[in-house]
Amino acid sequence: MERAKWRLALRRQRQESPWLEIGRPKMAYDEQAAKKMAAQAALSYVEGGMSVGLGTGSTAAYFIEALGKKCREEKIAVFCVCTSASSEAMAKKHHLAAVPLCDVKKIDIAVDGADQIDRRRNLIKGYGGALAREKVVDYLAEKFIVIADERKLSDSLDKAVPVEALPFCGGKIEKDLARIGGKARQRMRGDGEPFVSDNGMWIWDVDFGAVSDPRNLESRIKGMPGVLEVGLFTQPVWKVLVSDGKKVWEA
After folding, report:
1. How confident is the model over 125-158, as pLDDT tens digits?
2. Which of 119, 153, 245, 249 has minimal Cβ neighbours within 10 Å of its Cβ?
């Protein structure tokens, strides 16, 4: 059943226009509703007293907001390890306790979005610029839940892969990535200046085409001098909760 839903989601993505319902006009796909529904579904796995890893990005933002509401209404407390300055600010806005990673013995659960998800639950992440801290938190978590709208599903990973590296090594990083088939494009801000991560690093978005072996590529890029982190996430994911804006299923 879940595979059938995955195939249906992929078919929808390949269509040039939104799908039709019989007897009804075309309906626009509501991406934000899908993200919000997936985020809401993850709440059922959070209990009072847990340490919770909070991701970064638009889908994670919906989860943080919903988690704050859950804690207020149920009068429970959780301890949040945030993956960016923006997720920490949002956690505090919703009256959640944001704590340093070193202050928790373990991360019970991490909830984060993804920019692309393949059939084997490999991920591309980092379009929000927080890939390094996200990988630390998500990989350390005892249970890692990915929340996403259905358009993030793909047969294979073929979007640009973020790479976070020392500005000092910029030119060298681009050449190293080119040697393994990557076309690197440095991420820039709206004012034309380089995007700088919370870690003081620069980010390159690298086109490798369809990635046949994500784990191997992750390892090769991580081994390049000057690279802090790569936005390929290949460790096991506990659950992938996906929504089309009308329902949620586990992919």
Report:
1. 999 999 999 999 999 999 999 999 999 999 999 9
2. 119
Closest CA to 176 of 206, 199, 197, 209: 206
> Cα angle at 149 between 81 and 133, to 5 degrees?
25
Domain 30-154+235-245 -> CATH class: alpha beta
Task: Read off the amino acid at residue 138.
Answer: D
Rounded distance between C-alpha atoms, residue 69 and residue 146, angstroms: 20
Burial of 130 (0-12, 13-18, 19+ CB in 10 A): buried
**Which CATH number among 3.30.70.260, 3.40.50.300, 3.40.50.150, 1.20.1290.10 corresponds to the domain 161-230?**
3.30.70.260
Both tokens of 184, joined, read 């690197």
Please determine, for residue 1, whether its predicted confidence score (pLDDT) is greater than 80: no
* CA–CA distance, 31 with 26 (Å, rounded to integer): 15
Catalytic residues: 134
In this structure, the strands spanning 202-207 and 161-165 are antiparallel
CA of residue 62 relative to chain centroid, distance? 13
**pTM of the entire structure?**
0.89
